[in-house]
Amino acid sequence: MLWLAPISLEHGKGHLMARTIVGLDIGTSGVRAAEFSLGRHRKPALRKFVTLPLPRDALRRGVVVDQAAVAQSLRALWAKGKFSTKAVVIGIANEGVLVRQMDLDWMPPADFRKALHYQVAEALPVPVNEANLDYHLLDEVEVTDEHDGTVRRVNRILLVAAARDVVDGFVTAAQGAGLRVTRADLLPFALIRTAASVPAEHQQAEAIVHIGADTTSVVVHSDGRPRFVRMIPSIGSNTITKALQDRYDWSWEEAERSKIALGMHSAPVGETPGYEHPAQQVVTEEAHKLVAEIRATLEFFISSASGSETLSKVLLSGAGSWLTGLPEHLADELALPLEWLSPLDAVRVPRRLRIDGDGPAHLSVPAGLCLGVGAA
Ligand SMILES: Nc1ncnc2c1ncn2[C@@H]1O[C@H](COP(=O)(O)OP(=O)(O)OP(=O)(O)O)[C@@H](O)[C@H]1O
Ligand SMILES: [Mg+2]
């Protein structure tokens, strides 16, 4: 059965000891698979890691639209990786997944889980029997009714509801390549696990901003506990490529190359920048829009969080964040320290496996997916 698991940092327990699993990140621009063994050791050990590009338009807004193309790329990926298992964990980030904070009447945990279907049915955009449901308990609190002043005890939860068909698209594509999806997980939760494997210096919340090709995920967690999740479909680095393509009538590849070569212009605010090429203005303007969206998302979290919430820092991830000038601009706009999310503290990488260049960055999602496998 497929399910979206609540986040947990525990893994490698009981019968799950010494298992081999592949974390599979199916992204708009490429597929990445990392095989880990989950042994007695606290950290999973990386065994194999390979990536391959995915044909354009096989995925759109984080949803599989061309199952045959994805299956073919996965077959090629397995041929390249020579993995020792066909069991995979996949990550999902698209608008078919609803993540929402809710207050529901308190019940003992077993009853609460059983009643969840009935309690959340009305809040879902799809019929409840067409959704995979899970939740993460944020807090147990007492709330006072605005109208009659009565106090009731509630479980404050982060509800995760995935429309079955958006999960099924990935599962069918994987099956087409002879793979078995043992678990589908929320991609932002995978990022949190990767980030939280490094002991926090303090309890203050930290944000993770993951800029992909077609989807940007913004997450806030405190010490591994998710606080806020937003996946923004159709907002990613491909937006910049598309704007260049439209403006200059370039091929996709030309627009990609120009975007990467030019990057953003970094003139201080208020000064008129001298662009290296007129296209750099397009890149800069589009990147400003992307950063504005991220900033608005985090401002929304801060304004809606109860109490005085502050963020200690932002961890940046996803190849879209490699655009020259973007990290600096984001740090300025958010007025927060910024660091790169690194998976290398979360997992053990044997010396014989050299992963350099872009490798480690693309390992964050597969690693975080596998870190969740031992979770209940
Ligand atoms: N050096 C670079 N500078 C700027 N942008 C880059 C660079 N390398 C890759 N990108 C951009 O990053 C994006 C791909 O990011 P990533 O690989 O994280 O996305 P994805 O996982 O394939 O897509 P998604 O998760 O959105 O489905 C592309 O738009 C690409 O142009
Ligand atoms: Mg991605």
UniProtKB/TrEMBL annotation:
<dbReference type="InterPro" id="IPR043129">
    <property type="entry name" value="ATPase_NBD"/>
</dbReference>
<dbReference type="InterPro" id="IPR003494">
    <property type="entry name" value="SHS2_FtsA"/>
</dbReference>
<feature type="domain" description="SHS2">
    <location>
        <begin position="21"/>
        <end position="195"/>
    </location>
</feature>
<keyword id="KW-0131">Cell cycle</keyword>
<dbReference type="Pfam" id="PF11104">
    <property type="entry name" value="PilM_2"/>
</dbReference>
<protein>
    <submittedName>
        <fullName>Cell division protein FtsA</fullName>
    </submittedName>
</protein>
<dbReference type="InterPro" id="IPR005883">
    <property type="entry name" value="PilM"/>
</dbReference>
<dbReference type="GO" id="GO:0051301">
    <property type="term" value="P:cell division"/>
</dbReference>
<keyword id="KW-0132">Cell division</keyword>
<dbReference type="InterPro" id="IPR050696">
    <property type="entry name" value="FtsA/MreB"/>
</dbReference>
